[in-house]
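During the reporting period, our protein records have gained a structure token line. One record among many is quoted in full directly below:
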Amino acid sequence: MRYLFHLNIPHPLHLSQSLRWQSKASQFLEACFMSFSACPIAVVHAPLDHVWEFLSEPKNFALWWDAQTQGIIPDGRAQAGQKILAKTVEMGKSWDLTVTVNDVDESKHHIDLTTALPFGITVYNHITCTALKDGNTQVSFG
């Protein structure tokens, strides 16, 4: 998984109009931006066509992610510009998620997604399916 987090955190100090304080606030806010990148890979014991059919259908997302799909606009297979609205429960609280399909390449079996999470966190995902010689499929999520 490739996670690029962008946190927009207000500065906790009351800032005066002095340039010195504004400079320090700017440095503090710049330090709040963080990136994290990971790319899990799994082998699925199924042919590429079956795996791709499953992963390229947003109505199936609730079967493999920790969220309940609330809506898909427009409905149907993954397509550029599509929005998937979902809810997840963490720490006893319900959180809204919005996933935007940025790109789908059927011939290369990949999907690019942007997920908007609470607290200004944005996650960029690239899902790729690759056929293996033994008839299985490698899925990378990064």
